[in-house]
Amino acid sequence: WLELDAGGDVGAMIGAAVRTYWNEHGHAPKVILAPGIGLLTAAPDARGAVIAQRVYLDAIRIMLGADRIGGINYMSERDRRFIDNWEVEQFRRQVAARGDA
Predict the structure, then answer these.
(1) DSSP state of 26
(2) Alpha-carbon distance 42 to 77, whole Å?
(3) CA 42 to CA 46: how far, in whole Å?
(4) Termini Cα distance of the chain
(5) pTM for the full model?
(6) Are the C-beta atoms of 31 and 48 separated by less than 8 Å?
(7) What does the buried/exposed string (b/e) look like for 67-87 if buried means 16 or more CB atoms within 10 Å of the residue's CB?
(8) Per-residue pLDDT reduced to its tens digit, 35-61
(9) Which residues pair with 38 in a beta bridge?
(10) Helices marked H in the chain — which ranges?
(11) Three-point CA angle 17, 18, 22, nearest 5°
(12) How far apart are CA 28 and CA 23, in angstroms?
């Protein structure tokens, strides 16, 4: 979420926010939400940016649906690490990195 200063240089504000995010997380954000501008996505190529957009929009739909049935139940850190390190997930990342998927 990027709060923009009224009348400021939008490009400079986005650039500064991306640099701050990079310094804190070690990579650029894939999605930026800016009031009055919209949803911005970034990736090494157009395909990756479109995928980031679709995933984010799907996440919003899921959150809205979850609210209707009692709220979001977040995964534990232990479960998240399990999925991150699962060999099927590792394979999926390798395939995605090659551009096969």
Answers:
(1) S
(2) 26
(3) 8
(4) 29
(5) 0.63
(6) no
(7) eeeeeeeeeeeeeeeeeeeee
(8) 888 999 988 899 999 999 999 999 999
(9) 34
(10) 10-25, 46-68, 77-85, 87-98
(11) 120
(12) 9
Token pair 């998240």 is found at 80
Q: Which two tokens stand for residue 78?
A: 């232990």
What is the rounded distance in angstroms from the CA atom of residue 63 to the CA atom of residue 52? 16
φ and ψ of 69, to 5 deg = -115, 25
| Predicted confidence (pLDDT) at residue 99 exceeds the cutoff of 80 | no
Please tell me whether residue 50 adopts helix, strand or coil conformation: helix
Give the pair of three-digit tokens for residue 44.
Answer: 């090494």
- The model's confidence at residue 24, banded by pLDDT at 50, 70 and 90, is very high
Across the range 19-48, mean pLDDT stands at 90
Whole-number CA gyration radius for the chain: 17
Do 32 and 17 meet the contact criterion of CB atoms below 8 Å apart? yes
Report the pLDDT averaged over residues 20-30: 91
